[in-house]
Amino acid sequence: MSHILFVCTANICRSPAAEYLARARFGTLDHEFSSAGFLYDDRPAEPDMVTTLAGVGVDASTHRSRIISADLVASVDLVLTMEARHVQDIALLSEAAFFKTIPLMEAVDRVRPGMTVTEFVDSLGARSPMTYFDTKWDVEDPYRRSKRKYRKSVDRIGELVEQIVPVLS
Known about the structure:
4-stranded parallel β-sheet, 8 helices, 4 strands
């Protein structure tokens, strides 16, 4: 079983959405899913995110945020971020962490059917944190925006999760 960690800025909107959507849609037989962020520890998910997820049949009401650390990243197999700059932030935690960290949107673009998580991480090759100044791989943050933005975010994250998790064996 591989452990996939989803990361966003505060771990109260996008990364918990990815974690709970992945668990709801794929269970925990092949992968363990968790999430973390850079700002808050032990805060609940944003109420509008909890409500939006409930609207698609996913219960995230028990979520509590946690702060990412080098030890946490070392304990997982793959880190999928919601923004490119999160890759740089994780690279600052440890050089080794960078090599298993990639934006979720870029991961969907790079993954090939039948890859194991280890093969996928190995395929990331020699990248530089300096390549992650672009926002083209970012999932829009709905924080404190309209309910429509939350729904759009949940739909987009759900699509991305559906495109990557079942491909990784």
